[in-house]
């Protein structure tokens, strides 16, 4: 690994960037995305993202010019150098949450579905911020002596709460007790409120659509206001008899 002081000395400010810095930064981008193995986004080491957000190659280049490299990042551990990165250590724990990849796959699907364009605003909307918070939690070890992530840990505890029909008060007490048993500096959440706030990115929007009781049609599009199925004549609503003998 060569001397990386150029990352900082050759770009003292956004308006003062040397040609050498530009050339070496372009080489860094090529290496970073070669290590990403075809992925459209990888960890951005700019002074703002600090390897906690994934960006496209174009956006990352813009960020590095604007914000510079995050301080002290002379060993590119998030981009193929050194020992295993946090993602390599933590992601298998996240993927092990259930047999199908669980949280890890949902994070990937959610991210690709909402940010496929690769253009991410500087101040993300609430939905995007919730996703970023969850992604950061998936890469954050619970404490310095484990590879289990904060998200993985809270996912398991939430699963235990659900299976045991645990009340909110008892759940908060469980987190408090567990927290006292962990090493200092741990990042286990302290309450049900904080846990739900972290997991809110997985609460995908949905639309309720009435269906014919016999499965003929969905009451949508041209049938949105229909009261009876045009296929079988079944009523969309439960019909009851009024006091005068009529049905409603």
Main pleated sheet: 2 strands, antiparallel
How many domains would you count in the coordinates?
Answer: 3
Mean pLDDT score:
79
- The amount of helix comes to 40-55%
Q: How many DSSP helices? A: 9
Describe the structure.
With about 250 residues, this protein is an all-alpha fold. It folds into 3 domains: about 1-85, no CATH class; about 85-205, no CATH class; about 205-248, no CATH class. About 45% of the residues lie in helices and about 0% in strands. It is built from 9 helices and 2 strands.
Compact summary:
With 248 residues, the chain is mostly helical. 43% of the residues lie in helices and 2% in strands.
What labels describe this entry?
43% helix; 9 helices; two-stranded antiparallel ribbon; single chain; elongated; mainly alpha; 248 residues; 2 strands; 3 domains
Layout of helices and strands:
Layout: H1 6-9, H2 19-35, E1 41-43, E2 54-56, H3 57-67, H4 86-95, H5 102-115, H6 126-139, H7 150-163, H8 168-181, H9 192-199
Antiparallel strand pairs: 1-2
